[in-house]
Design goal:
- By secondary structure, this protein is an all-alpha fold.
- The chain is built from 8 helices and no strands.
- The longest helix is centred in the N-terminal third of the chain and has 23 residues.
- The radius of gyration is 16 Å and the shape is globular.
Length: about 170
């Protein structure tokens, strides 16, 4: 699926992918949330904790950039090729968190990201180079990677876990 190139398409893909994920999550309870795929250590809980955390990171990057502070992308002390190590602690923390708490945090993060996108103008989201920390990507592309793209991959993973559990 090609990346959105305008605010209208970004909001549409946000809503579409989140609706699919929510539909899948409707069938997940605390016991199922602790399941993982046979070839993976990440549980459903860990995946939702991870997605929630990355939406929060997006806001941190943006806020630091706007304030003129240093932006650590992906995270302070980490490079993109170290994400497996970085994400492992997110998954572990998610595994220790009650499912209802994870879902509430996820919904709050989704609402915050969607409201952020809706409040931005087209230039802020899709002008290349408008935000130094985004490199070659636009702010809209970062928002899509932090939300809808993560929703899509989470949905695929969770559906795989649920199929294997049957």
């Amino acid at each position: 699926m090609p990346a959105a190139t305008n605010k209208t398409d970004l909001l549409a893909v946000f809503d579409k992918e989140l609706a699919k994920l929510r539909k899948t999550l409707d069938g997940v309870d605390e016991a199922k949330a602790s399941l993982s795929a046979p070839d993976d250590d990440a549980t459903i809980k860990g995946v939702i904790a991870h997605r929630t955390h990355w939406m929060g990171m997006f806001h941190g990057w943006y806020e630091n950039g706007v304030a003129g502070r240093e932006v650590h992308v992906p995270a302070k002390g980490y490079k993109w090729n170290q994400l497996k190590e970085y994400n492992a602690r997110l998954y572990a923390k998610g595994n220790q968190t009650p499912w209802s708490v994870l879902l509430a945090g996820f919904e709050t993060a989704c609402d915050k990201l969607r409201q952020f996108i809706a409040a931005q103008d087209e230039d802020t989201l899709y002008t290349s180079g408008a935000h130094a920390w985004t490199g070659k990507w636009t702010l809209g592309r970062y928002a899509e990677a932090s939300g809808p793209s993560h929703f899509r991959s989470a949905n695929t993973y969770i559906r795989k876990v649920l199929r294997n559990a049957k």
